[in-house]
Every structure is written in C-alpha cells, then in structure tokens.
Amino acid sequence: MTLTAVSGEVLAQRLREAVPNSVIEWDDTAVWVEPSSLGSVARALHDNADTDFKYLNAVSAIDFVEHFELVYHLTSLAKRHTGVVRSRVYGREEPTAASVVGVWRGADFQEREIWDLMGVRFTGHPNMKRIMLWEGFDGHPLRKDFL
Q1: Which of 29, 75, 124, 140 is 20 to 30 Å apart from 41, CA to CA?
Q2: 56-to-82, 92, 146 alpha-carbon distances in Å
Q3: Residue pair 140/61 in contact by the 8 Å Cβ criterion
C-alpha cells in the first residue's frame, strides 16, 4: 500500500478550523503547533474525517539546546496518508507539553521515554514516571547539556 504525505499547509488549514490559535507555522512536510494545545490538536486530527489519523507511528524529541522539539508521525490507513506534527518546547528547567495518551494509547511509553531521557514532562499523562532509568536518577542523559 502506498501512502501519500499530507503537507504542512493542509494540516495547518485543518487545525486552524478545529483548534484556533494552535498553529505556529508550517512547511511542505510538517506543521508546528503550540505545546499546550497538543492534546486538542491530536484529538482534532484523529477525529476529523478528512485527516483520520487513527495511528500514531512515533513520538520523538530533539534537543536543539535553545528548545526541544517534539515530532509526531501520524498515519491514516483508511485515507492512505501520513502527516507530521511538530512542537517547540522552551525552557531547560521544566519543559512541558500536553500529553496525547488520551487520543493514542501508544504514546504512553513513548512520552515516558522522552520524559526519562530528555526531561520533557507531559501534562495530563496518567503515569509520568521514568521508564528506562531508576527513580532518583539525576538528570536526563540524552540532553546535550548532560554531564
């Protein structure tokens, strides 16, 4: 089965209608959204008949030092398309973003892994605790500033 990529512009149009003030920018491949609106964005992309993103392939995080970037890869098997949603999370002390576990259960361990290794906390997550390292471990080892 061949899947086509939905452009960031098309995703931005859908999200501006469904979740006002959530879209920051877009390019050919992705749309960037506010980290606090990720839960609403996820619900809109999941439930909208045009996007129908029922499957979350992966959530990952990138440390750009001045900010973290969360990257969500989504798929609709019914519509045979994929999409990418990104979100910039600022702050080194307590970076936070809204959890999408309520929309895609598969985000559970992935968000916990990002918290454990990068230090980005997901508000609304039902079990936000370390998954790879032990409780009490000092720091987040995939951060660029980890010693």
Answers
A1: 140
A2: 10, 27, 29
A3: no
Its sign, for the CA torsion 61, 114, 102, 40, is: negative
Residue 1: its pLDDT value, please?
76
pLDDT at 119: 97
Question: Strand pairing of 68-76 and 81-89?
Answer: antiparallel
**139: alpha, beta or left, given left = phi > 0 and alpha = psi -120 to 50?**
left
In the beta sheet, which residues pair with residue 72?
59, 85
Q: What does the pLDDT look like over 66-113, one tens digit per residue?
A: 999 999 999 999 999 999 999 999 999 999 999 999 999 999 999 999
Read off φ and ψ for residue 88, nearest 5 degrees: -95, 130
Query: Which structural domains are found in the chain, ordered by start?
Result: 4-98 (3.30.460.80)
125 and 116 Cβ atoms separated by less than 8 Å? no
Kindly state the average pLDDT of the residues 12-26: 97
Give the 3-state secondary structure of residue 70: strand
Residue 88 DSSP label: E
